[in-house]
Design brief:
Blueprint: H1 11-24, H2 28-34, H3 41-52, H4 63-76, H5 80-86, H6 97-114, H7 119-127, E1 140-142, E2 148-150, H8 160-164
Antiparallel strand pairs: 1-2
The structure holds a DNA duplex.
DNA sequence: AAAATATGCAACCGCCACTGC
DNA sequence: CGCAGTGGCGGTTGCATATTT
């Protein structure tokens, strides 16, 4: 059995994953197996969900999205995946959790640089989030039918549209 | 032009929840 | 009920590229 490949994906691998996804759907284990074990199921899933899925919106984040994300983070905490699923544009294209997470981090970094005096205040704001109970379980997932399935600790799931108002 | 530093993106890692046995 | 396998997630890290010195 070949050893697990690491690092960046080639165009050939991407194409293969896309083809296999058509046949196997979200059976990542099956897709990984069909790739002769070169990548494991977690790598395959990550690659597809974050980059290859045709419904991904690859445009830059708008000001509205940035505002919504900042607001969302204050209220719900770092639930990037939930935010990403709700952040669909008019054409139905969505953001990925990775995009949201990276965007938030770099935005936060920029702001930290701009106002180096205020990191403590920012942290305090995070601690005051009413519905945030820490990392564990503070997210939701989807069942096989794609329905949103709360993991138990989310007290409220606001529609992202409301955040934009 | 070269070196140093900053920035952004993508992949890795470990944990948690769900499911089936 | 307990366990193993799998999927999903957020945090962290590393690399490539851009910018600054």
């Amino acid at each position: 059995m070949p050893s697990l490949k690491k690092g960046h994906w080639s165009a050939t691998e991407d194409k293969l994953v896309l083809e296999l996804h058509l046949r196997h759907g979200s059976d990542w284990k099956g897709i990984a197996a069909a790739m002769n074990g070169a990548r494991d199921h977690k790598q395959v899933r990550e690659r597809y969900v974050n980059h290859l899925d045709p419904s991904i919106n690859h445009d830059r984040f708008s000001i509205e999205e940035e505002r919504a994300l900042v607001k969302w983070n204050k209220i719900e905490g770092p639930q990037w995946a939930v935010f990403a699923r709700r952040m669909r544009n008019g054409d139905g294209f969505r953001r990925t959790a990775l995009q949201v997470k990276n965007f938030f981090h770099r935005t936060a970094c920029r702001k930290n640089k701009r106002q180096k005096d205020a990191p403590m205040e920012q942290q305090a704001a995070v601690d005051e989030r009413p519905n945030y109970e820490g990392r564990s379980g503070a997210s939701s997932t989807q069942n096989v039918r794609g329905e949103e399935k709360p993991r138990g600790r989310i007290k409220s799931l606001m529609n992202i549209r409301n955040l934009l108002n």
